[in-house]
Structures are given as C-alpha cells and as structure tokens.
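Posting this for the archive.
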Amino acid sequence: MFKELKNSDKGIVFITVLIIIIVVMILTISIISLNVNQVLVSEHEVKRIQAETLALGALALTVSNQMSDSPNSIITLTTTLDGVNFDVVSNLQATNSLDIDVSY
C-alpha cells in the first residue's frame, strides 16, 4: 500500500497546483496594492495642484485689493473643490512681504 502511494504522481501535481495558485495570489495582491498606492498619491497630487492654483488666485485677489480705494491687509477665503474644503489666508505684512497660506 505504501509502495503505491510513493509511486503516485497525484500528490506532486496537487502540491504544484497549490504553489502556482499561491504565487498567482501573491502577484495579484501586489498589483492591487501598487494600484491603490498610486491612486492615493494621485489624489494627494491633485489636492496640491488645486491648493497651488488657489494660492495664485489669492495673489491676484490681494494685488487687486491693494489697488482699490479701501485695501485690506488680510484676505480670507474658504471654498470647496471636489468635496475638499480649502481655506486660503492672504496676509500682507508691514514689510511689504506677502504670506499666502492654503490649508485643506
């Protein structure tokens, strides 16, 4: 009986199939993990670009505000883009330096 089990190739085929399935599963999980990570990085990059664009808009708003009859040294703006709240604060210092802070 043991001699028949030793000479059987069914066990080797089963182990080989199991190893192939495990390797394919590991590769699939790795690819999915890379894709999820890439999506998160892309979302962060989009938010950064939106914040930079809002900061440039705040710069233009500050310049136009300084040319008006009653200029303000601090401008605050809150807006929502793609469901994310952006707070923009433009602060013109007495030393003629401009600080623009965008938080999200």
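Helices lie at 2-6, 10-66. Residues 2-103 form one domain.
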